[in-house]
Design goal:
Nucleotidyltransferase, domain 5, 13 helices, 21 strands, 46% helix, elongated
Amino acid sequence: MTGKELIVAIELGSSKITGIAGRKNGDGNIQIQAFAREDSSSFIRKGVVYNIDKTAECINKVIKRLETTLNEHIDKAYVGIGGQSLRSIKNVISRQFSENVVISQDIIDSINDTNGEAPYQEQKILDVIPQEYLIGTNLETEPVGISSNHIEGRFLNVIARTSNEDNIYASFDQAGIKIAEIFLSPLKTADILLTETEKRSGCALVDFGAETTTVSVYCKNILRHLAVIPLGSNNISKDLCSLSIEENEAEFLKKKYGCAYTEPKEGGEDETATITLNDGRKIATKVFNEIVEARCEEIIANVWNQIRLSGYQENLLAGITIIGGGAKLKNMELAFKQKTSFDKDIKIGKPFIAIHTGINALQSELLIYNTTIALLNSGNEDCSAGKPIVTDLFGEHANKQMQEKDEEEKVKAAAILEAQKAEALRIRAKKEQEEKEKAKEEERRIKEEERIKKEKEKKAKKLERAEQMKNSKIGKFFNNIKKGFNDLSENITKDE
């Protein structure tokens, strides 16, 4: 990179869509030049895009605001994927050989390929993090060259619902913005907040977001566990609404007075302390704090449970790092210590890379926008369209023409996309119909086979019973009688 490339990052959050544009200096520092955000609470839920049209419209607004600040057209952006459906699953692939062989790269590639083909219903593998390879009784991260008759590859597959990624691509297509690359948000966030030493020593990163809380556990410089809890700081605001206040006011009060843990005071808490609402009513501070703390305690308990499920709770020598909007609550670190009895360091996270910006709204709330900054830091491709926004008298006409052309291209692209979607739906419907007919035919075949089988069994049982009857004493008695009658009949016929 020359340092001239404009990098644009878009984060699709549950409460807002955030856009950042900037450039990376040769020393690795970031110079942020534009920032924009728009509310997304009505069409992105728990980090997942539910309404493509509204998401596309919001992306457009964010991009336009960035372009206005930059005085430059944007062609593409780096995007993060997270949300409730994101999680990690452990998988093991083994190879057994008839004799000792030297483990080659081809063997490793074969094991990796097999793991990558692991089926997950309606889920897609977004990334694979190799853990170790078990050779004999030893765990190896570099197994090539070791002799053994058995190897076991251990993997951490990061998966998410297929529809989640599809909806992201559809939203950006509709907005007319290319996606330079989709990154896994938790992994990229960890790259700017956790040092290699911390990852190697063992640590957990907790992103306390609006509707979700993401937990990432690292040890020996490898991601060991990833989970997204469907609870966030918005749940605190909704709980406060039980005090008969609107959600907007609840959000404001949470940010102003919210405390994750209230330390006991000598002589007990002041029972008379109150908080004044917009309508003049007063609510007891004690009641307010109890509501906030109760929800924080629940979220912390879920976080700690995920850390325990990772199996690395005893290996987090570098402690726990907390980020996100929820991390801004007073005494959050203390709340974690009190509710988990974790005896290592618990801290609020800050990027270890230098970030330069003159944007006050961003500078004062870097804690909330760590993920967007991380996405920008991971990008390396120029996102500029290479067309400045002209503002002179003649340029306005030129801009208008360019905009009209862009709109035409967007309409054409949208038409092509719709045609592709229609064709895909047609093919899918045809396939489903064929599968249904195939299933019905198979069902008919199975039923016919069952009928024939039952008839055969019935006949066999009838013959068996007849044979048993024939060979029994009663059967022999009746046969003798029958024979006697036949002999008598023959004699009568002869006499006649």
